[in-house]
């Protein structure tokens, strides 16, 4: 049995060991090289891709194709790219009858460039490929990004090309053949003059997420086979102090490049806490440009100095939580007003408090919500009815969790016959689709409670998925789930016997708010970490699943006795009607 009652120190990352690091001034050289330090795989792949001897002209990077990511990749590519001093492209001469193209001579010509790095998240056809204009009988040509990046590197969001597939096919052909040929965007209106082709020496980097990369592979599999591949890693694992130093240098690097304030020494611990809450892991820190810009741009609005204090940072976070907290408050109000029933005291058979997390479209943060799962058992043929699934409100993963939970219980009971009961399980007062397996541990405990006719304590909530051996498996959204139940208990008044049960593997994912940590420290609220369902049942019911000592009550014994009683009654009813008077002898 592995039941760990967690202390307040386990509920968030302890930043104390790093206080001395944050008090030291940063190393300017390390700050300038921070991107290369936190992205060693990507840096090495870029060095390989940009080497003149590498034949491939294409590289794909798994990362969101948004501007903050492209800006970060632009900086990293620029640090690795060492172009020559040669001029690329050429220049056009227009006459009244034709157009000629000459070799590059000076940088003044529109289509003459020196090697450089360009990037964009979106571009129309003219912006990417240039255009030919005719005004008052005079012709002129305007270069696009492809021409301006000639001899260098062009970084594009993959979404840009996938939403314009014909343009992507042209770009692929130009880059592969190393020549740019002009075309008429409108096939009904050909170019006013024949334009000579331009030599094109360019390396193209495409940035997209997994789905976009899959779509690219389906569209042009031959290109993805030869493209160089790498990923932007959104997190850095904390193995020692050096990893924290590298993360601090990355923060300083981003703040310096974007002209944003950097944390003072007393703000770093709170920033570390927020960072591990974002990654949902005490052992990793985010290096996500979107997270950084969203957070530090907000900080810049409340401070005009080069640094911000821990007090100012805390004030900002509280203001953000209040501004974005309307939905969470409404969910809590519905429960407190008894519009949604969630008990936090007493006992109920077949009823348990589970924890859910909801992500509303467009809402900036997930919202935790306590939910009530109920199970009723009646005479039947052993069928377990998932009401959510029957009503087409349950997703496939939820259905899988239900089947795994049922398989464990049937194997554990080791029956030589069909279970003489049928049961139905549901999320009470749930009116939208339910998916995920994070409630399967709660559903299993409610099922056992209903079978054994033993009540479950309502002052405890539980989250976690379960496997076919009854082991507790980690789930996501843990912090929001725990805090939602704590907030409800605190609103009704903490009694000193309330708490939450979580899988042991989830302990490293905790980054809980200060009021909750304080309540745990004062033993007004508890968090237990368990290894399997056998650890959860004594906490929820006061009885173990099984007991080697004869004579002691346990849940398995109660379930087996109830099954035996139901089977005996069922056997009597199976006699033909004229012979059922024989049951009188069996009864006596």
Automatic annotation (TrEMBL):
Q: Which reaction does it catalyse?
A: Hydrolysis of proteins in presence of ATP
GO BP annotations of the record are: protein catabolic process; proteolysis
Kindly identify the residues recorded as the active site. Answer: 438, 481
Pfam entry (one): Lon_C
Q: Which residues does the UniProt record annotate as the domain Lon proteolytic?
A: 346-543
* EC number(s) stated in the UniProt entry for this protein: 3.4.21.53
Key word DNA damage present: no
User: GO MF annotations for this entry?
Assistant: ATP binding; ATP-dependent peptidase activity; serine-type endopeptidase activity
What the entry lists under Gene3D superfamilies is as follows: 3.30.230.10, P-loop containing nucleotide triphosphate hydrolases
Please give the PROSITE patterns that the UniProt record associates with this protein. LON_PROTEOLYTIC
The protein's UniProt keywords, in alphabetical order, are:
Hydrolase, Protease, Serine protease
Family (UniProt): Belongs to the peptidase S16 family.
Name assigned to this protein: endopeptidase La
Species: Mangrovibacter plantisponsor
């Amino acid at each position: 049995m592995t039941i760990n009652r967690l202390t307040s120190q386990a509920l968030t990352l302890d930043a104390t060991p790093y206080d001395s690091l944050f008090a030291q001034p940063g190393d300017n050289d390390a700050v300038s090289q921070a991107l290369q330090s936190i992205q060693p795989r990507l840096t090495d792949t870029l060095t390989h891709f940009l080497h003149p001897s590498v034949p491939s002209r294409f590289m794909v990077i798994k990362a969101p194709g948004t501007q903050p990511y492209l800006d970060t990749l632009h900086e990293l590519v620029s640090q690795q790219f060492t172009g020559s001093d040669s001029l690329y492209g050429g220049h056009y001469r227009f006459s009244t009858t034709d157009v000629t193209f000459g070799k590059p001579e000076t940088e003044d010509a529109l289509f003459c460039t020196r090697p450089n790095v360009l990037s964009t998240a979106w571009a129309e056809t003219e912006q990417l490929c240039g255009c030919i204009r005719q005004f008052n009988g005079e012709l002129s040509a305007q270069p696009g990004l492809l021409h301006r990046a000639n001899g260098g590197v062009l970084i594009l969001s993959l979404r840009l090309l996938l939403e314009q597939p014909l343009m992507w096919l042209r770009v692929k052909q130009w880059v592969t053949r190393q020549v740019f040929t002009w075309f008429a965007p409108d096939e009904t209106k050909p170019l006013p003059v024949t334009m000579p082709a331009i030599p094109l020496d360019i390396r193209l980097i495409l940035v997209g997420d997994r789905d976009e990369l899959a779509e690219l592979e389906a569209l042009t599999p031959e290109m993805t086979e030869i493209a160089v591949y790498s990923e932007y890693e959104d997190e850095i694992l904390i193995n020692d102090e050096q990893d924290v130093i590298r993360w601090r240098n990355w923060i300083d690097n981003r703040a310096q490049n974007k002209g944003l304030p950097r944390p003072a020494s007393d703000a770093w611990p709170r920033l570390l806490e927020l960072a591990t809450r974002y990654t949902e892991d005490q052992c990793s820190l985010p290096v996500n440009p979107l997270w950084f810009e969203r957070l530090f741009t907000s900080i810049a609005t409340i401070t005009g100095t080069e640094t911000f204090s821990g007090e100012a940072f805390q004030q900002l976070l509280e203001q953000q939580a209040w501004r974005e907290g309307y939905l969470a408050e409404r969910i809590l109000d519905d429960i407190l007003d008894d519009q949604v029933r969630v008990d936090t005291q007493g006992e109920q058979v077949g009823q348990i408090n589970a924890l859910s997390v909801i992500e509303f479209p467009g809402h900036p943060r997930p919202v935790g919500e306590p939910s009530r799962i109920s199970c009723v058992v009646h005479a039947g043929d052993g069928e377990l009815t998932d009401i959510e699934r029957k009503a087409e409100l349950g997703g496939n993963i939820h259905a899988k969790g239900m089947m795994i939970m049922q398989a464990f219980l049937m194997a554990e009971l080791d029956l030589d016959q069909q279970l003489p009961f049928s049961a139905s399980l549901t999320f009470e007062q749930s009116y939208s689709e339910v998916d995920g397996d994070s409630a399967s541990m709660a559903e299993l405990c409610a099922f056992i409670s209903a079978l054994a006719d033993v009540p479950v304590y309502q002052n405890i909530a539980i989250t976690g998925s379960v496997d076919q051996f009854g082991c507790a498996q980690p789930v996501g959204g843990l912090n929001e789930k725990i805090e939602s139940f704590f907030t409800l208990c605190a609103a009704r008044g903490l009694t000193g016997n309330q708490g939450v049960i979580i899988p042991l593997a989830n302990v490293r994912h905790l980054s809980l708010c200060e009021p909750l940590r304080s309540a745990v420290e004062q033993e007004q609220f508890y968090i237990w970490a368990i290894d399997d369902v056998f650890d959860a049942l004594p906490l929820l019911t006061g009885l173990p699943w099984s007991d080697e000592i004869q004579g002691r009550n346990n849940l398995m014994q109660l379930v087996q006795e109830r099954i035996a009683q139901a089977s005996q009654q069922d056997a009597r009813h199976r006699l033909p009607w004229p012979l059922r008077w024989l049951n009188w002898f069996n009864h006596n």
